Amino acid sequence: MPVTPKTPEELVIMREAGRINALALQAMRQAVRPGISTLELDAIAAEVLRQHGARPAFLGYPPGGEHPFPATITASINDELVHGIPRADRLLREGDIISLDCGTIFNGFVGDSAITVGVGIISAEAQRLLEVTEQALYEGIAAALAGNTTRDIARAVQRFVEQHGCSVVRDYAGHGVGRAMHEDLHVPNWWPNGRHSRYFRSEMLRPGHTFAIEPMISAGRAPVRTLDDHWTVVTQDGSLCAHFEHTVAVAPAGPPLILTAL
């Protein structure tokens, strides 16, 4: 199905949705400390959205699903890659790293972004993982140019990550964002070589295309599994992992607009 570009008027609304989402992430980042619970962080994000006339995109997702997500954010600690469910009894500890992912709906459009932050003093390994993952996001963003393809983004992310001795988790990818949190565009973080690449569809990027780029990176091996709560994804080998994400819009010329920046 062809991906419909957003109009300039729609991009204005998406930019505001993204800004609100960034404010929620900023508020949570400032609150991260040893002893705070992931449910408290969830409440902080929910209040930011409420104050700006927005509502959470994750809460109750997917509509009509068997196991709808029960919170405003996902909060994933250490070997938890994505989709961790906030809990009152899940307290942060010195040295943890936590991925905070939030989605915002404002005037019918979605902003979606994520950060991973350290709790207090973290190990050199953890700090390096955060730096590699965040820079991999910006390598992908730099490739999100009109006339390029989703393959260009995937290869830019994968090349940077693997050059730094980390692993790209292959089970999850970026996605189109707009009136829905998951629209048609599929934006992988890796690309196969040789004959296997024929199973991947590379989409041309056009001005007005809007999508999330979200490297999910392991310090160890790439395979992951989902826990019995039906949501939390962890690395199979127990290695640390990190996740950074922005929603972007392809520009007519030059670099994309980062819709989820402050």
Please give a quick description of this structure.
With 262 residues, the chain is of the alpha+beta class. 27% of the residues lie in helices and 24% in strands.
Provide structural commentary:
There is one protein chain. The protein is α+β, with helices and mostly antiparallel strands and 262 residues long. The chain has a single domain, classed as Creatine Amidinohydrolase (Alpha-Beta Complex), CATH 3.90.230. It has four helices and 15 strands. It has helices at residues 8-31, 38-51, 124-142, 150-163, and strands spanning 55-56, 73-77, 80-82, 97-106, 109-118, 167-168, 174-176, 183-187, 210-213, 216-218, 224-226, 233-235, 241-243, 246-249, 257-258. The strands form four sheets. The chain has a five-stranded antiparallel β-sheet. Strands 1, 2, 4 and 5 form a four-stranded antiparallel β-sheet that branches. Helix 3 packs antiparallel against helix 4 (150-163). The protein is globular, with a radius of gyration of 17 Å. It starts with 7 loop residues before the first helix and ends with a strand. The model has no long low-confidence stretch (mean pLDDT 96).
Topology summary:
Elements: H1 8-31, H2 38-51, E1 55-56, E2 73-77, E3 80-82, E4 97-106, E5 109-118, H3 124-142, H4 150-163, E6 167-168, E7 174-176, E8 183-187, E9 210-213, E10 216-218, E11 224-226, E12 233-235, E13 241-243, E14 246-249, E15 257-258
Antiparallel strand pairs: 1-4, 2-4, 3-12, 4-5, 6-10, 7-8, 7-9, 9-14, 10-13, 11-12, 14-15
Helix pairs in contact: 1-2, 3-4
